[in-house]
Amino acid sequence: MVAIMGSFFNMDNGFFSFLGKAFDAVILSTLYLVCCIPIITIGPATTALYYATVKGIRRERGYVYREFFKSFRLNFKTGAIAGILLTVVFAVLIFDILFARSYVKDNTGGSVMFGIFVAIAFIIYCFSLYVFPVLSRFDMKFVQLMKASLLMSIKHFPYTLGMAIITAAAIIGVNYMLLLIFILPVVTTLLNSFLMERVLKKYMPKSEGPGEETGKDEWYLE
Known about the structure:
Shape: globular
Structural class: mainly alpha
Low-confidence stretches: 210-215
Oligomer: single chain
Largest sheet: none
Helix content: over 70%
């Protein structure tokens, strides 16, 4: 009995490890939402969310909050530009879709416009799934980031589609239950990372093992 109780209260057992990660997920999701409030910081916040979730929660390297702010600072400029651009593009597309939708019943032209805008929105949506994870992993100029993200989203479309479905399900879930917004940012990022990391690893420099050639902690190669 003593041995069983000792095992249960061992902070390294699976139960307490899960509770710790769940707590980190809630705090990290909340931190992400707070950092998104100024709008212009959505990009660096999303970049930092991916970095901290994969490194801190999935790989258990470092402290999630420290990793979040580390990535937030390092990728602020490029992330902010990308975030603002995508926000404006999505806002315009939503307006166009709603506008075209109002004419769908009136004429064929409205239906064609509606279909075109929806198709464009889907392409941008899929492309945007790559922008911030790629930025979190690679040191790129803005134009390089956009090109790389677009090419990856097309070349690895099966993975892209999987992440698109996961993200859409999370958005729908929040619409049904608003409180999920305090956990789903990390959960969605974590689920997407199992697909995204397979893609990103294809573009990483080859090495025999984490840190063996570069001297860096290449946790993402594990």
